[in-house]
Amino acid sequence: MLKSLAFAATFFAGAEALKADSRLGMSLLSKSRKLEDADNAYDYTYVADYSIKFQGCHHVSQWNLDADDGDENVRIQTKRLVRFRLCPTGSCTNDKTAGCSSGYGDYIVDMDTFLYSYLYDKQEQEEYNCEYAQENTCGCGADDVDDEDTCLANCYAANGLDYCIANDDDAAQFDVTAYAYCAQADFGRRRLDENAVAYYIGASCADQGGEVHLGLFVDDTCSE
What we know:
By secondary structure, the protein is α+β, with helices and mostly antiparallel strands. The chain contains 3 helices and 9 strands. Strands 2-4-5-6-3 form a 5-stranded antiparallel beta sheet, covered by helices on one side.
């Protein structure tokens, strides 16, 4: 049974496109299937000027091949899929869900794989933005700067880089990337009883298929 999460996260609604020729973009394409062509052996060297744009998601129920006669196994598991579009970067827009209307190809991939690529690309891009601002924009290493930390915080805020500002409770914040794939929930405390119910966190598709949410589940396939 899917439980609601106070820290539930929503992904891809209006999200920026992922560069197809990035390391994660190339990895994602290699694990995806082009919808109008069953042949999955593609040469991805042509994607230098393309971007990956999320189109939607859906669920498919299928038999769990790993299930045995034990009561703890989920016999029918939910397969979660994402559809994305490979758009020419020059005509790819984040303002429209479709991303582009010509010169594109549509692909399908496992939702967890897409989520992993999206989260880590976002993380790498934000780290690059913070480092670039610190070294080339802020000028907080100058001799006349009394408090470099305050200077950097003000610079980040002024340039729309609030995610670069470290908070005292950052270590206690929920790490979304740890649950790009279905994983047992870690609530930062020991389980009181070895027979206590284990919970798992994983991605699921919104009812209308336009967003991906994180949810709390009671099985290790994040199906229930």
